[in-house]
Design a protein that fits this description.
globular, 3 helices, mainly alpha
C-alpha cells in the first residue's frame, strides 16, 4: 500500500507539479525517487525525451478536465509545463 504524504501549499508549484522542496519531502518520507519535470528542449530519442513521452501518455489518460471555469486544473497545468501536445 502506498504511503500518503501531506503537502503544504508551498510544496505545490503554481505552474503545475511540485516544487523542489515538495519532491524532496516525498522522496524522504516514502523512499521514492521523484525527479524534476522535463521542461526544456531535448534531443529526439534521448532519455529525457522518452521520459516526457511516457509522462504525457500517462497523464493524458487520467480522467478529469484540463480546465474548469476558464482556469487550468492541476492536470492541465502539468501537461502545459511538460509541453505535452
Amino acid at each position: 500500500m502506498a504511503k500518503s504524504v501531506r503537502l503544504r501549499k508551498e510544496h505545490k508549484s503554481k505552474t503545475g507539479g511540485l516544487t523542489k522542496k515538495g519532491r524532496d519531502k516525498i522522496n524522504r518520507e516514502t523512499g521514492s525517487n521523484l525527479k524534476a519535470p522535463v521542461t526544456g528542449k531535448v534531443k529526439p530519442g534521448s532519455k529525457a525525451a522518452k521520459r516526457r513521452k511516457s509522462f504525457c501518455a500517462r497523464m493524458k489518460g487520467v480522467k478529469g478536465a484540463t480546465s474548469k471555469g476558464g482556469k487550468l486544473t492541476r492536470k492541465g497545468l502539468a501537461l502545459k509545463k511538460w509541453k505535452c501536445k
